[in-house]
Every structure is written in C-alpha cells, then in structure tokens.
Design goal:
single chain; 310 residues; alpha+beta; Herpes Virus-1; Apoptosis, Tumor Necrosis Factor Receptor Associated Protein 2, Chain A; 3 domains; six-stranded mixed sheet; four-stranded antiparallel sheet; 10 helices; 17 strands
Length: 310
C-alpha cells in the first residue's frame, strides 16, 4: 500500500475514520471534514464517503502497535521518529520548523520575517539590533507605570543553543515577570536552568533560580504558573536607582549530571589467601635461586650423603 494514502491531505496526520476521498484519491480524515465540507483541500474535487476496510484496518493496527513515523521536517534534516499521538507536539517544537519573528508573536512588532533556526540570531542582530549573551549584567530603564513587553535572543556558546529572554510589566496584576525559554524540544529545555538576580549594591538583592521552558509554551502561561521570575511592582521599584534604572544579571547553565561515586571494594581476608600464598611461593623460589642459598643448599645436600661413624 502507498504510504501517502495513510495520511490526510489537509492536516498531514494519520487518517482516522470516517474517511472521505475525491476522484484523485486524495483522502481527508474525519477531523478535517468539518472544515473542508465536500471540497477536496488539495484539488477542490468533490469528496465522497468511502468504505476502505483495508486502510482503516491498517490504521487501527498501526495505532495499537505504537508505530513511529518520521518527522514531517525530515526533508530539512530532522532525524526524530515519533508516535502518531506525539507527532503534532514534536512538530510544534522541532528545530527544523519554519520560524516566524518572535518579536511579532510576543511583542506585536511589525515584522513579517520567517526563516530557519540558524537564521534567527542574524535576523535579530541586523533588523532589530538586539541580542544577548548567556551570561550578562545590565542596567535597564524601567517604566513600572505602564504595561510593556520586551524580548531578545540569547546566544549560548556561539550557537550551541538558542534561548529567548522575555520580560513583561503587568500593571493590572501589579507584577513584573522575566522568563528564559529554550528554542527547541521541551525535553531538551529541561537540561538547562537560569539564575536571575536584581540588585542594589553589594547587599540588597533578589535571586531566583528556575528551569528553562521550551519556546512552544506560551510565555503568559508560564507567568501565570509562577515558574519564572515573578516579582511585585513595589518590590522591583524599591531596587530602582534615582534615574529609574534597574541593575540585573543572569546566566544560563546546563544541568550537570550527578556523578556516580566509585565504591572502593575491600576484599575479604579469605580473598587475599591465594595472592599471599603466591607471594610466599615466589619468595621461596627467589631465595633458592640466589647464589648464596644455592651453595648452602648444595653443602647441606653433600653433608647428607656423608656416612655417619661413631
């Protein structure tokens, strides 16, 4: 059977009954039929309900056996294979997907850029004049009387990884938020954490350590969950200097795998007996092989042969 027939021509997911098909053999799953009505989304032909027992039987069997499928971005280099239930989640997190300008998505910037993962940093540096290192100290002017959003990309060790720095002032909630999100799979995001600190001199400081979230997660959802830097506006205001600048610093780090301590084995006394006997045997051989002991041994041997007379 042609593998293409297993997938809906609209959502590109594994077909689920009831299935409709046009005269050009383009199939549409049950979930997409409400949107397409009776028109094929690929060729605009009329869709007709079909009884495709073989296809439905194969699909049901594939779901039971948890068969994995290549990522839809395999042609762009993705090597992951995922189960049907995880396919949509993976596609939303995959580094090989097409990215829209995050400034437009999060801050509402007027930017229609779209491109690949390895083009993001260049876009922000040249078109938005912003980027950060994974370890930074900065003073930024804060207006805590109005709502605001800000965003910058974070370059981790010259392209080894990419993160988003996102900041929000919410006057209605009287809160200020910061979060750092990993660009890529959520399971990879869990390997990183960040330390964020605001300070006013060497003594007064507030420091928060938190795990990174994946970029597919909505930042506002993270703010609501509290798994970020979440401080009240009065608390942040107390750290502003006379010119309303806030001193802050942060660094992104990778979680270190716990080292397994080596257990030194202490052999039992009985385990040393064979090696002890071997050592004694070797010492005996060495003693007999020395010239002095050989003469003594020969002398004793000759004395034994001498007859004994009273």
């Amino acid at each position: 059977m042609d593998a293409v027939k297993l997938f809906c021509c609209k959502c590109l997911q594994l077909l689920s009954p009831p299935i409709k098909q046009c005269n050009n053999k383009h199939s549409v799953c049950g979930k997409c039929q409400a949107e397409t009505k009776d028109d094929c989304p690929k060729c605009a032909g009329t869709l007709n309900a079909i009884t495709y027992d073989e296809l439905e039987r194969v699909i049901t069997q594939l779901n039971k056996e948890k068969v994995t499928f290549p990522c839809v971005y395999e042609c762009k280099g993705c090597t992951y294979k995922v189960e049907q239930a995880e396919k949509l989640v993976h596609q939303s997190e995959c580094k090989f997907r097409t990215f829209e300008c995050e400034g437009k998505k999060y801050c509402g910037w007027k930017c229609d850029w779209s491109g690949n993962y390895d083009q993001i940093l260049s876009h922000f540096k040249h078109f938005h004049d912003c980027s950060m290192s994974f370890k930074i100290e900065r003073a930024t002017k804060m207006n805590l009387d109005d709502d605001s959003l800000s965003l910058e990309p974070i370059d981790y060790y010259d392209g080894c990884a990419l993160f988003w720095y996102k900041h929000k002032v919410d006057t209605s909630a009287q809160m200020v938020y910061w979060v750092i999100q990993y660009v890529g799979l959520q399971k990879d995001a869990a390997q990183y954490f960040y330390e964020f600190e605001i300070h006013d001199g060497p003594i007064r400081k507030i420091k928060v350590t938190e795990f990174c979230e994946g970029d597919s997660m909505d930042a506002n959802s993270i703010f609501k969950s509290g798994q970020c830097v979440a401080l009240s506006i009065p608390a942040v205001r107390s750290f502003l200097n006379m010119e309303d600048y806030l001193n802050f610093r942060f660094r992104v780090m990778k979680v270190k795998k716990p080292s397994t301590p080596k257990v030194e084995e202490h052999p039992s006394p009985s385990a040393n007996i064979p090696s002890l006997l071997m050592h004694m045997h070797q010492a005996h051989i060495n003693a007999r092989s020395s010239p002095r002991n050989q003469n003594h041994f020969q002398k004793n041997k000759s004395e034994k042969k001498r007859p004994y007379f009273k």
